[in-house]
# Entry
Amino acid sequence: MKVMIKIPFVFVLLFMIVSCATTQSTAPEEPSNLPEKYRLDDELEPVEKIFTIREPRWQEVDEQSIILRADRRDYYLFVLRRPMDKMYSNPRIALSNKSNVTPGIDRVYVHPSVNRQGYVIEKIYRLKGREQAEEIKERFRED
# Structure
């Protein structure tokens, strides 16, 4: 009788171990060393969290940054932890979480893309409107 109880217990234990080993971790990855051009804490306002993004509109800036237009007035620069794979024409960009976007935790997904893990958002900066968004795009494209 004791053997009949132990066998299912062993299978459940093995199943839990295997499922934990194959689940993607939600823990933040180790921060990388960003290139100097993305270190903008002295120039722009860093954002610790963005709440509730309803209809995001994206602009690709370069291989490691994109601009999010959250509404008519709110623009944000997302600096990714690493460069994105080769971009395709008219990619679809999505967030891992639209209600609370936090740098270091949340990810940006680009479809179509080879990378299915997404790109961790390293930094988020608040931009002062469309003019500053255009300035940043020009500046990053020149580098």
Summary: Helices lie at 2-22, 129-142.
